[in-house]
Amino acid sequence: MPKGRKKGKAAKPTAGGGGRRSAESRPSSDNDYDTADNASVVSSTLSDTQSVAEEAEDEVDDTSAQEQFEEKLRDCIDGTTQKSAEGRKTCLRGMKVAFCKKFITDFVADRKITIADGIERCLKKGKGEEQSLAADCATLLCVQLGPGDDCEEIYKDLCPVLQIVLLDKSAALQARSSCATALGLCTFIGASGLLQVRAIMNTLESVFKASYLKGDGVPPSHSPEVASLHCSCLMAWSLLLSIVPPSTVEEILDVHLKKLPQVLESSHVDLRIAAGLSIALLYEMARIDDEDFEGVKFEHLCETLKQLSTDSNKHRAKKDRRQQRANFRDILRGVAEGEPPDETIKFGFESLYLDSWARKRQYDAICQVLSSGMNTHLQENDLLRDIFELGPPINTSLQGIHKVTKFERHMYNAAAFKARTKARAKSRDKRSVVVPQS
């Protein structure tokens, strides 16, 4: 009988056996190489397929998100007529956020009457915060609709209600301030003629004229809330001033260039700044026809503006002093030297140049309403692009913009994680030697 192998002893490989194993480890033909290449191609194809699938999933997600957005907005619109005051305020907040966040003119135009009816109801029956939110939504509704018959129709319905709340001394001051802002911007967008614009300017002045000096030359004393109301009225008035034709500027100058400098003596910084900006706008418009225009008491006005631009009174808050000096330095240059503002606003691939006091007032007014949604509306909203002469909206796909898919984000994050792990492992390796610098 042949001797059996001992346990634990492996048979020694023969030369032939070693050769067979080596041959088995190598591809026996070109077909094996083709198989490896095919696996690579299949892997690449699967990767491409996954990327396409991710892009399709992103499109589905975007569509689904838009549908959810519109559904929630419809609920908010319908909710403005409910009995609960808190519920109405919640719905108004939702509408306000939605109108700021996205430009959805087609969606809004289809429901403009329903939206306007809800806003009007909240203005008439609501109190305080509800009226303030409703006034904000009225402004945003006009911004969404833009100039045209739709906006004019809504403006005719809402303008009288906004005026009633503004002039109602029993209404909350916050609501009156919001109505003043809404009245200015809605008239700026939806008014059909100069007579309407002048009528609203007179209404606004009937409120802020209480900040002119008293008969004995002493500035009136107002609470911060009242001063804020007067500031809103003055800023809305100056917004409408920016679209008044040159033929009527002389009449406005004769009346207001004597009165507005009185507001510079107010104890409220925002009101002083609003008066200064309005004066700079008045001088800019007056110098369209007369480059050397100075007006009455020009030297005294320049001296007052200079004092405000260097104000260091300790009884005023440090933040207020800094804000006042920054604004009045520009205002002084505008009035004394005729130098316009020079600001550049960048959004996406475009830039907006604010090179006049009129354009700056218009931008600030719209920006105050749209807040963080300003850049989106500058890119997409025809109204804003027409006001600031930006031309038709630019197709971002022509700019070579590629939307990053979820798969691409995942691969990028994975590569970054791998590189970060390697770098950390190398720095933690005990064998790495730190050579001290001599």
Summarize the structure.
The protein is an all-alpha fold and 438 residues long. The chain has helices at residues 15-25, 30-79, 85-101, 105-110, 112-125, 129-145, 149-167, 173-190, 194-208, 224-241, 249-256, 260-263, 269-286, 298-309, 318-336, 357-370, 374-380, 382-387, 406-428, and strands at residues 343-347, 350-354. The protein is built from 19 helices and two strands.
Give your account of this protein's structure:
This protein is mainly α and 438 residues long. Helix content is 68%, strand content 2%. It has 19 helices and two strands. The chain has helices at 15-25, 30-79, 85-101, 105-110, 112-125, 129-145, 149-167, 173-190, 194-208, 224-241, 249-256, 260-263, 269-286, 298-309, 318-336, 357-370, 374-380, 382-387, 406-428, and strands at residues 343-347, 350-354. Strands 1-2 form a two-stranded antiparallel ribbon. A hairpin with a 2-residue loop joins strand 1 and strand 2. Helix 6 packs antiparallel against helix 7 (149-167), helix 10 runs parallel beside helix 13 (269-286) and helix 10 packs across helix 16.
